[in-house]
Amino acid sequence: MSPPLLLLQDIHLTFGAAPLLAGAGLSVGEGERICLVGRNGSGKSTLLRVAAGLLAPDGGSRFAQPGATIRYLPQEPDFAGHATTLAYVEAGFETEPDRHRAAYLLEQLGLTGAESPETLSGGEARRAAIARVLAPSPDILLLDEPTNHLDLPGIEWLERELAAMRCGLVVISHDRRLLERLSRVTVWLDRGITRTLDRGFAAFEAWRDEVLAQEEAERHKLGRKIAMDEDWLRYGVTARRKRNQKRLADLHALRRKRREHRAAQGNARMEATQAELSGRLVIVAEGVGKSYGGRPIVRDLSTRILRGDRVGIVGGNGAGKTTLLNLLTGKLAPDAGEVRLGAGLAPVVLDQRRESLDPGQTLREALTGGAGDSVTIGGRTRHVIGAMKDFLFAPEQANTPVGVLSGGERGRLTLARAFARPSNLLVLDEPTNDLDLETLDLLQELLADYAGTVLLVSHDRDFLDRVATSVIAAEGDGRWVEYAGGYSDMLAQRRPLSEPQAAPKPRVAAPAVPARAAERPARMTFKDRHTLDALPGRIAALQAEVARLGSELADPDLYARNPARFAAAGAALTAAQESLAAAEEQWLTLEMLREELGG
């Protein structure tokens, strides 16, 4: 085994009275892919700064191989002294700068190199900083939240670039999908010390739960009194995640309902559908268009959003996601088309800036508005201490000033205040920015329990997969297309960008069905009608088969007991899911044809 290029041993560091790092370590070898995880405030960024040689610890040792190049990406890059982004990137070379490499990376990241750092947006600043650390092709990359302020195309480009590099990598990120695809080793920083798992992030949460369960058992053996509130903070998220497994199954059912809803969307029957769904219709958009300076932002968009839908909106920076959100919620008038809102809507908006928090208020006052000791969340009136625990705060934090809370804690407080307001429509614009993994789990649970409708703009692919029942995606030139399911479902259905503009492709190849040609067919054939009558029974049988196989595979002992049966059941489940999707697509096509022909 080759010696590590970078080694931290027994690192101690104290800020104020409490130790932040109490014996932490980190070893990075050539080509290693490490994710550094832990709660907000646990010291991850501090440990990374020690690794970069920018912060001297109180105790312990740091060793870097002579001649090894180490590049560190901070959360807040410093552009002082650089006139352009190209000059900033070239300054990252230790020797003669490679101007072509610097210009290439900037171009790939959507920058020209001539931008003034003073005028950069948050996303542009992040892309310039990424180009600076990648340009020298270092031996070790230390990345602190590299996806912050990046749009989805930028995140996916970064993921591909990092996967192709041969350097050692240590990354801190709240983007689960990025961590799962890049990491091969997981370092968990918890209560000042580090534990290492020689597997990627995908295996981390189950391993962490086992470690914590073993600690709890050992404490019981020693007869120690367990502090219940501290345990709740640690184990509450674990319980939430296990409950979320059922919610993911429920989400698939909601997505099937969403597809069925859209089967009755014909323009000719819109008014009849509205009357039939009175009280359930939240937003109807018909032929909506919006332009700025002659540039189309939204072009001829039609959609229908029902109570209980959770609609994700995705696209690159500048695609018009916030504009679309404002059009759908009635805050912005369209240039063309019409948006109709359901009666009695009570929206709550959580925008990118988040609401302002008074740093002088205590946590209790911020939640209750300074009046009483109770707060109503989700229709239930709770004592403020109980509500705090719901949002992962300890009881002793009730009188903590808001100004001293960490970024993740302020994010949780903002969510708590938003959910405390009576609402039946949640409008969330980039709600996952700067949230740690535990808070993302909390937000996922809140949205799963929310009885109303959710409109969500996000660049977090995993979060969209866990939450969204449908996705509206920017396709360029003002075109937006709605896809059933989450982000991964959208990718499976989406046409390649090089193909002519057309309706989204089915998720799987469906059996031959009558095409919806430019000229409407005169009638349905006997075979079409017979197939349409038989499909509901077939779909129900396939749903039952998928449920049966899913239940069989949920047995945690099946693989150890019978590996061959486990493999066979997995293959059968995949085939049944594909057949179910094909049957649903076929039913949808025939049902829409029937409606067009007037029944």
Beta-strand content estimate: 15-25%
CATH homologous superfamily identity of the largest domain: P-loop containing nucleotide triphosphate hydrolases
CATH class (first level) name of the largest domain: Alpha Beta
Largest pleated sheet: 6 strands, mixed
Question: Could you please say which CATH topology of the largest domain applies here?
Answer: Rossmann fold
Please bin the fraction of helical residues. Answer: 40-55%
Known CATH architecture of the largest domain: 3-Layer(aba) Sandwich
Strand order of the largest sheet: 5-6-7-3-8-9
The count of helical stretches stands at: 19
If you average the pLDDT, what whole number results?
A: 80
The number of E-state strands comes to 20
What's the domain count?
Answer: 4
Helix and strand content put the structural class at alpha/beta
The Cα radius of gyration reads 26 Å
The span between the termini is: 72 Å
Which regions are unreliable across 5 or more consecutive residues at pLDDT < 50? Answer: 260-279, 496-520
Shape, per Cα inertia axes? globular
Question: How does this structure look, described?
Answer:
By secondary structure, the protein is α/β, with parallel strands linked by helices. The chain folds into four domains: 6-212, Rossmann fold, CATH 3.40.50.300; 250-346 and 424-505, P-loop containing nucleotide triphosphate hydrolases (Rossmann fold, 3-Layer(aba) Sandwich); 356-420, no CATH class; 519-596, Helix Hairpins (Orthogonal Bundle). The protein is built from 19 helices and 20 strands. A six-stranded mixed beta sheet has the order 5-6-7-3-8-9, sandwiched between helices. Strands 14-17-18-12-19-20 form a six-stranded mixed beta sheet, sandwiched between helices. Strands 2-1-4 form a three-stranded antiparallel beta sheet, with helices on one face. A hairpin with a 2-residue loop joins β1 (6-15) and β2 (18-28). α8 crosses α14 (437-449) and α17 packs antiparallel against α19. The longest helix is centred in the middle third of the chain and has 35 residues, at 228-262. The chain is globular and about 80 Å long. The N and C termini lie far apart (72 Å). Mean pLDDT is 80; it is low at 260-279 and 496-520.
